[in-house]
Amino acid sequence: MVSFLKDQNIYNGEIDEYVSRRYRVLARLSKGGTSEIYKAIDTFNNSKVAIKILLSEYAGIDKDEKNLEISPREIEKAYEFINQEARFLETCHHPNIIHLRDYNLESKLPYIVLDFLENITLEKEILYKGRTFSIKETLDILEQICDALGYVHDKGYVYCDLKPNNIISVRSNLTLIDFGLVRPINKPIIGGTIGYMAPEALQSYNNPVLATPALDVYSLGILLYELLTEFQPLTQHRNTSETASTTPKLASDLNPYLPKIFDNILLRCIENNPEDRYHSMDLLIQDFTKAAKSFI
Ligand SMILES: Nc1ncnc2c1ncn2[C@@H]1O[C@H](COP(=O)(O)OP(=O)(O)OP(=O)(O)O)[C@@H](O)[C@H]1O
Ligand SMILES: [Mg+2]
Questions:
Q1: Which residues have C-beta atoms less than 6 Å from ligand 1?
Q2: Confidence class of residue 9 from pLDDT cuts 50, 70 and 90?
Q3: How many domains does the chain have?
Q4: By CB count within 10 A, which of 45, 133, 149, 258 is most buried?
Q5: How many angstroms is it from 206 CA to the middle of ligand 2?
Q6: What CATH number does the domain containing 187 carry?
Q7: What CATH number did the domain enclosing 29 receive?
């Protein structure tokens, strides 16, 4: 009984005064670095929505002592993320990209309203599965993600934060969420996730690094490697802090059922030199499909 109560996600009206009365907030789903996600009902049509809203400490609402540590630059960035996500998603119409329904960037806590997906993230699916994905399953995932990323690139943008945690899976249909780091091609990137960031992106802590589609190709290579082997190529142990090695182990050495032809495809995605990676999502999917044909 005690643990049952502990697991309940009780909502105490924390964001009600910042969100239109149109939405009836039900529960908090997750808390990220600069924003939180809530589940809500859109009372106009009685449908479920997800509301992504800036954390109150960035708006100076929560006067906790620890919040004095947030620098003006961090505050500026947090607003930039949510603004960017709204502005970009507003222009998107794609079956594998989360649908933006509404937003209010003028609210004291800016927020965006998204279709609610009864979800599990691809990250959780990888963990629950406890086995590698088959070539057929991987191809199904790759086709959907390449399609979404190709669409973003064709619009002149780079997604910049591809990772299993930013992909929601509903009965094998995948949806890319979390567009806070999306950047126009050739503009400086503003972040990424360690473990999925290309080596050139890691330099951005010292110098500005310009966004190119090659950054997304690299992250996708890491994701593919993870699906096919259960490991990340440069650590070989997912979710550990073990020191990264610089030469990736061949995926076929980790998964004896994986034909060697896939090693070259994976290695080409995660080449250190961006020029040596696939130059487009189309070329990657072509190669992968050709290789997969003999095995599915
Ligand atoms: N539209 C949605 N429907 C259902 N759940 C969602 C939706 N959008 C986000 N979530 C849930 O909230 C989590 C965080 O969402 P998102 O990645 O957009 O926020 P974030 O603040 O960037 O978080 P993080 O810092 O953890 O990446 C997702 O992993 C997912 O579990
Ligand atoms: Mg995220």
A1: 29-30, 32-33, 35, 37, 50, 52, 98, 114-117, 119, 121, 165-166, 177-178, 180
A2: low
A3: 2
A4: 149
A5: 24
A6: 1.10.510.10
A7: 3.30.200.20
Tokens at residue 214, please?
A: 């090659």
d(CA 52, CA 37): 4
β-strand partners of 115: 49
pLDDT tens digits along 114-161? 999 987 899 998 888 888 999 999 999 999 999 999 999 999 999 999
Q: Which two tokens stand for residue 176?
A: 């890319």
**Closest-lying ligand 1 atom to the alpha carbon of residue 35:** 21
Q: Which domain holds residue 200?
A: 122-292
Q: Which amino acid would we find at residue 99?
A: H
pTM above 0.85, yes or no: yes
Judging by DSSP bridges, how do beta strands 167-170 and 120-121 pair with one another? Answer: antiparallel
* pLDDT 10s digits, 231-245: 888 865 444 444 455
